[in-house]
Write a structure and sequence with these properties.
Elements lengths: L5 E7 L3 E7 L5 E8 L11 E2 L1 H18 L7 E8 L4 E5 L9 E2 L7 H8 L8 H4 L8 H11 L3 H6 L3 E5 H9 L5 E3 H4 L5 E2 L4 E2 L1 H7 L8 E3 L2 E6 L10 E7 H8 L8 E5 L3 E8 L10 E6 L7 E8 L3 H11 L7 H7 L8 E3 L17 E3 L7 H27 L6 E4 L6 H11 L3 E4 L4 H13 L6 H7 L2 E5 L5 H16 L6
Parallel strand pairs: 1-5, 5-14, 9-12, 15-21, 21-22
Antiparallel strand pairs: 1-2, 2-3, 4-7, 6-8, 10-11, 13-14, 15-16, 16-18, 17-18, 19-20, 22-23
Helix pairs in contact: 1-6, 9-14, 10-12, 11-12, 12-13
Length: about 500
């Protein structure tokens, strides 16, 4: 008798942890999700409790299995995908974190990044790592922990501390203390050489990070170990790891050079597959590993990250109380005909790609007595689309690739008003797939390929299906006028701090 099996994916994100179970067609069989606390000790500081992340991960795995009446023996393999750059340092002997996880949005390492840049400034390590020196990446966060947590430096020098991004932290607890990461997560630390896919000893030395702390770098799809007996998935192969945006790119089947996807989440992340050669950016984008499947050569991507998109809707809900729930924003935005010349630049933690202005802060400009909360809601949604256009223009300038269409995923793509405006402002079709949870799906594919559950990348392409396409409907003069207004608004936010 043939046993039907499934693939599980653990998706440890910025605001919640979830487990999703997929069948061979890439359809969702079960999902469980749990939010965790956002800890803000000071302005600009963002932390998570690493133990809470692991406890919640255990819970959602058990819950997803229970909802579908499955046991671990029904699972062929598990993949992990994670919020990237978020940094945990823990004791190798006890597994206890020495400090909270420092989240990717955290800006406490601003001064440290300036010091590390020296005379060369933010681009000091760009050639080797593909990244500008920024508070966004893990390397400076590790250094901050070593400098500021009592006893951490001594323990690290003695070889007693482990550093990991969240994938490594989850893998360590899921297995018997396996200390690994994959090339996509390693490429976000500022400590890995993009060409060799190995830790760069010189950068580590200049950052003051002992190499004994670092996890071993592996491909994104291979068996790293099996679930420990007391864990939530005993004996199950852990066989895929991809940083969340790379996982979404893989799940969206952007497997050929020139294919791009945009994820609309807490922030927005646009990745363009550039094939097996890293493309250096001259326009403020990141060069990053897109995925590496087993022994095959690594595939690279250009990435543009926008810090605040979905979290702006949360802010309107939680801090201003303009809406009661995130889904109300669409109706509110549709209560007005246009933005009323109001622009909302959500530079709450500076501006990310392609501007990289940590000195910028949020602004709402162009208001008159005529402005109402509908205009604010619309301006908030439009900000997401304008920021996406900036990133796409930078990608075109770097790669010479003309975008023919944009595949989209993430929480905000249910907002049809936003999707239509996105298509209008870009002048290209915007395509939403049937399975919107492409991040978890990408991790599932990576794990399934490693254990032969899926034969090849051809299976992934076959599973991908269109749900809805939006075509541009705005005349070009109008979209140009709106975009010019946006640029004017953004420049008003510079040099604030």
């Amino acid at each position: 008798m043939h046993v039907i099996q499934y693939i599980a994916a653990i998706d440890q994100g910025t605001t919640s942890s979830r487990c999703m179970i997929f069948d061979h067609d890439g359809a969702v069989v079960s999902v469980a999700q749990k939010e965790h606390r956002q800890i803000f000790p000071r302005a600009g500081w963002v932390e998570h409790d690493p133990k809470e992340l692991w406890i919640n991960t255990r819970e959602v795995v058990a819950s997803a299995l229970a909802k579908a009446h499955l046991t671990e023996s029904d699972i062929a393999a598990v993949g992990i995908t994670n919020q990237r750059e978020t940094t945990v340092v823990w004791d190798r002997n006890t597994g206890e974190p020495v400090y909270n996880a420092i989240v990717w949005q955290d800006t406490r390492t601003d001064e440290l990044c300036r010091r590390l840049g020296g005379d060369e400034g933010p681009s000091r390590y760009r050639k080797r790592t593909g990244l500008p020196l920024s508070t966004y990446f893990s390397g400076p966060k590790v250094r901050w922990i070593l400098d500021n947590v009592d006893g951490a430096r001594e323990k690290a020098d003695a070889g007693d501390l482990c550093f990991g991004t969240i994938d490594s932290w989850i893998l360590w607890h899921l297995t018997q203390g396996t200390h690994l990461t994959d090339a996509t997560n390693a490429s976000r630390t500022m400590l890995m050489n993009l060409e060799t896919l190995e830790w760069d000893p010189e950068i580590c030395a200049e950052f003051g990070i002992p190499m004994s702390m670092l996890p071993e770098i592996r491909s994104s799809s291979e068996i790293y170990g099996v679930g420990r007996p007391q864990g939530p998935l005993p004996g199950i192969p852990v066989a895929g790891i991809l940083g969340d945006q790379q996982a979404a790119t893989f799940g969206q089947a952007c497997l050929s050079e020139g294919e791009a996807k945009n994820t609309y989440g807490t922030g927005n992340f646009l990745l363009l597959n550039t094939g097996t050669t890293p493309v250096p950016s001259k326009h403020g984008l990141l060069t990053t590993v897109c995925y590496k499947i087993g022994d095959a050569p690594a595939v690279y991507a250009l990435e543009g990250s926008v810090a605040v998109t979905g979290s702006l809707v949360q802010w309107l809900r939680d801090s201003l109380g303009i809406i009661q729930s995130a889904k109300e924003i669409e109706a509110l935005a549709k209560s007005v005909d246009d933005n009323g010349d109001v622009y909302f630049v959500p530079a709450f933690s500076g501006l990310f790609a392609p501007r990289w202005r940590p000195d910028a802060r949020g602004a709402i400009v162009g208001m008159t007595r005529f402005t109402n909360k509908g205009h604010l809601a619309r301006a908030a949604l439009e900000a997401t689309a304008y920021q996406t256009r900036e990133v796409i223009e930078a990608m075109r300038a770097d790669s010479g690739v003309e975008l023919a269409s944009l595949k989209v995923d993430g929480g905000m793509v249910v907002n049809e008003t936003l999707m239509q405006f996105q298509s209008d402002i870009l002048g290209v079709p915007v395509i939403r797939p049937v399975v919107n949870e492409t991040t978890a799906l990408g991790a599932a594919y990576a794990a399934g390929l490693a254990v032969g559950f899926w034969e090849s990348e051809g299976d992934i392409r076959e599973n991908w299906a269109v749900d809805k396409t939006w075509e541009p409907a705005m005349d070009e003069a109008e979209s140009t006028r709106l975009y010019a207004g946006w640029n004017k608004a953004v420049e008003r936010t510079y040099d604030w701090v």
